[in-house]
Amino acid sequence: MVHSRQVEVDGKQTTLDFGHEGVLYRQSFVIYDTLTNSKWNHSTGLAMAGTLAGTQLKILPSWVVRWEKWKTMHPETKVLARAGRGGFMGTYVADEQSSSFGLSVGQGPQAKLYPYDLLLKKEIVNDVVPPHSVVVVIDPVHMQAMAFSRKIGDQELLFVSAKAKTPGTPLIRDKTTGTLWDRFSGQAIDGPLRGKSLLPLVSVPWLRDRWRQIYKEGIIYEGPSTVQRP
Questions:
Q1: Residue 115, CB half-sphere, CA atoms under 13 Å: how many?
Q2: What is the tens place of the pLDDT at every residue in 2-59?
Q3: Would you put residue 101 in left (φ > 0), alpha (ψ -120 to 50) or beta?
Q4: pLDDT per residue over 52-100, tens digit each?
Q5: What distance in Å separates the CA atoms of residue 113 and residue 27, rounded to the nearest whole number?
Q6: How far, in Å, CA of 28 to CA of 209, rounded?
Q7: What angle (nearest 5°) sits at the alpha carbon of residue 75, between those of residues 98 and 204?
Q8: SS3 per-residue string spanning the chain
């Protein structure tokens, strides 16, 4: 989870520093800011107690992606390197834990979880998560899932799978214009909309049981006409 540290405090834009409170709330870490000692849920970015209670940190788009794929896409990238350490959180191995995870899109009661095992069957899901029309995609090789807005300007697109021209470059095609898009950069690479880019939406991999603890009113996607509510 990646949040912006910029919030308004006493009418001024302020950059907060955070620390770990050392406790859990609904199976999520509680963090505190060093300025006001307010307590925040690290998953939602919402201040739950203290001077800033009710303040919402902006969630920033981020990926969980294999290093070799990221390095290929961003050859000049930098890495925040830290000494390795074990811990009770264990090790995340996507292809061994897919049935336990889903991709969460949206926030609050409108949040929707797309289970990885369902995405692996469909690979592409056209859906709506207010206020966005979304397309959710997954790369079954690298177990990487992403969500984009389906709108380009005033035009709403409907996507289907497309055969890759080169290995390792999964594509999608919009049925409206026939344009080919890179499935994970969201860039149009061929067709009438070539050069355009889909807007990436905030989407975060979650353990399904922990997601339900936070998003009590959220929806678990089961198909175009069926959803699972709590």
A1: 15
A2: 889 999 998 899 999 999 888 887 777 899 999 999 999 888 888 999 999 999 888 8
A3: beta
A4: 999 988 888 776 777 777 787 788 888 876 665 555 555 555 556 667 8
A5: 17
A6: 12
A7: 30
A8: CCECCEEEECCEEEECCEEEEEEEECCEEEEEECCCCCEEECCCCEEEECCCCCCECCECCCCCCCHHHHHHHCCCCCCCCCCCCCCCCCCCCHHHCHHHEEEEECCHHHCEEEEHHHHHHHCEEEEEECCEEEEEEEECCCCEEEEEECEECCEECCEEEECCCCCCCCEEEECCCCCEEECCCCEEEECCCCCCECCECCEEEEEHHHHHHHCCCCEEECCCCCEECC
Could you tell me which of 15, 8, 1, 9 has the C-alpha nearest to residue 45? 1
Pull the structure tokens for residue 95: 């292809």
Q: Which amino acid is at 58?
A: K
Query: Strands 112-115 and 219-221: what pairing?
Result: parallel
Show the CA angle centred on residue 90, arms to residues 85 and 94, nearest 5°.
Answer: 120
Are 214 and 28 in contact by the 8 Å Cβ rule? The answer is: yes
Peptide bond before residue 131 is cis, with ω within 30 degrees of 0: yes
Place of tokens 């969500």: 147
